[in-house]
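Annex B. Sample input.
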Amino acid sequence: MKRVAIFVAGIVCLLIVGTFTLLWLLFRTPYPPQPKFGFTGDWRSTDVFGYEERALPPAATIRQDYSTWQPKTEHRRRLYLARLGGSERQFRFVASTNSGDTPMGAQRYTWVEFDYTDPTNGTYHLTWMMLGEHDPSFLRFDGQYRLYQLELSGDTNDTSPRLFIHGIEGIRPEHYVGD
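Annex B, continued. Sample output.
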């Protein structure tokens, strides 16, 4: 009798787990949602230790500016703020969707990179990455100029300074904590 009860309990557990797994596969919201313009909340990225912003300096002096920039508190992220746009200023736009192994299994992510040439400040190499498969067309510049939060990355051997895009005005941040 005890074996029958254990067998029945095992089958009930499998049915419950199977049902919830099936429901999750059918009705889950893919994370994160496709980025699109129109977000009216705080579009800036978040950081545990906070961040400081300043205007994007010319490409020729950005490394010196970054190395002398001392944040008000230790571990604060240093982000540059720039108004970017104009399709005639964007070159070598490359997008790819890749997969990488993580402790949670293979994760898909979308990677975009392009060069941006400012007539007065020079050329910057911009990159953007987000988990999931996304249509990166929202990163193709048009006639509208938007604010971007950028973080210096790469090394001193890069021809153009490499900047990682953290936030885009009008786009919901990946880890948004609001309503």
